[in-house]
Amino acid sequence: MNRTAIIGVGISRCGHRRDDVTHPELVYEAVREALDMAGLWIDEVDCIVYGTMDPFDGILAPEKWDGEAMGVGRLKPMIKVTTGGTTGMSIALTAYTLASSGLFDVVMAVSGQRVSENVEAQKVLNLAVDPFHDRPFGIGAIAAAAFQASSYMHRLGDSRRVEEAMAMVSSKNRTVALRNPKAHLKRPLTVEEALRSPLLIWPIKYSDSCPSSDGSAAVIFASERAAKRISDRRAWVLAADTISDSYYWGSKDLSVWDSLAILARRVYKRAGITDPRRQIDTAELYDAFSIQEILEYEAVGFAEKYKGTELLFEGLTDFHGDLPVNASGGVLSTNPIGATGLIKTAEAALQVMGAAGEHQVPDAQTSIAHAWGGALQFHTLIVLSSEIGVKRP
Fold it and tell me: Are 296 and 370 spatial neighbours (Cβ–Cβ below 8 Å)?
């Protein structure tokens, strides 16, 4: 496969309701920004990969409505991908594969989502679980996170420490979102406020949960020859992949995310990463719920099993720490579900491009972005770098 880089990134302003724009106009915000960053006209894009979670918009085949906003009307080939919460990063991986295959030189991944159009997201998410054993109980994403948190507490044997660590994740991500002009939730949150937050499903509190957002993203991938010709600002893709597991929770230990750990080892091997904690400068992990960021620390190799809370108590993953995680504010601050994984990819690319603005991590050379979806069984992971090779440990 040919070397491939991200050369353009666009993220719309995200919020609870974007009633000021139509669905195509929301998508166009991100597309226009990505094209401007890359210095491209839409005619120079060879192919478009589009993805969204149709049920959350309440729109049948939204790609038909959004087509003009993406340039499909200029007779460009388009592929649609939908994989639950990993949709955004799945289309990023598809665009990357097309650009690196030699089939196309410039491929744009686009996603837009208006979750405010949906009546109740949890009713949709309930459809992802086992139809016989789980669905009748109304189990959705919040319950899944509650199972993860309670399992982790049991394994660690210290529920209070885990509760405090979860509050620290929420406080860290919600507060750093103040630096991000595109983020949805922008208000400081102290650890004490997070601990006093109303309970949803024990031990998940309101502050431990992500919002439902309207927003869009666009990321432009280019082959090496096109990237070097078009732009001086590039985020090279060192490795990327996806993995799938069983959707049935009853057969899993939810205190660990083994499938993500397997994926991380596979992707790191391709990228040449042997010491992720030292070789990765910043990470965009999919923190739909605060407990998940802790599990992800361990799965992607930042901490040993059941030692993820230590990173928080030592301040290592803070914005000014040695390994900032979710410098954008994370999913806990912005979550237009189908587009979220693409926003994570975009934010990770901005970091290694040195273009993240007020939430730029100093001297970031290597970053990773991650997304999960379905009933906890889908994972996607991408490694980006300012250089074609990864820095040595």
Answer: yes
Rounded to a whole number of angstroms, the distance between the first and last alpha carbons of the chain is 26
What is the rounded CA–CA span in Å between residue 57 and residue 250? 31
CB atoms within 10 A of CB 393: 10
Distances (CA, A) of 54 to 13, 28, 117: 20, 18, 11
Q: Output the pLDDT for position 211.
A: 94
Residue partners of 65: CB distance under 8 A and separation at least 6: 23, 24, 59
What six digits make up the tokens of 51? Answer: 């993805």
Residue 163 has pLDDT above 80, yes or no: yes
8 Å CB contact between 58 and 65? no
| DSSP class of 380 | E
Query: In 3-state terms, what secondary structure has residue 349?
Result: helix
Query: In angstroms, rounded to a whole number, what is the distance separating the alpha carbons of residues 125 and 373?
Result: 10
pLDDT at site 1: 73
Please give the full DSSP string across 21-69, using - where no structure is assigned: S-HHHHHHHHHHHHHHHHT--GGG--EEEE---HHHHT-SSHHHHHHHH
DSSP 221-266: EEEHHHHHHH-S--EEEEEEEEEE--S-GGGS-TTS-HHHHHHHHH
Q: Which amino acid does the sequence have at 247?
A: Y
Structure tokens that stand for 390 in this block: 């990864």
Q: CA 177 to CA 112: how far, in whole Å?
A: 20
Pairing of strands 47-50, 378-385: unpaired
- Which structure tokens are listed for 129? 């679980």
Burial-class residue 226 by CB neighbours within 10 Å (0-12, 13-18, 19+): buried
CATH class, range 4-119+212-230: alpha beta
Residues 345-375, buried b or exposed e (16+ Cβ, 10 A)?
Answer: bbbbbbbbbbebeebbbeebbbbbbbbbbbb
Q: Are 11 and 30 in contact (CB under 8 A)?
A: yes
- Give the H or E element holding residue 270: helix 258-271
Kindly indicate the confidence band of residue 391, based on its pLDDT and cuts at 50, 70 and 90.
low
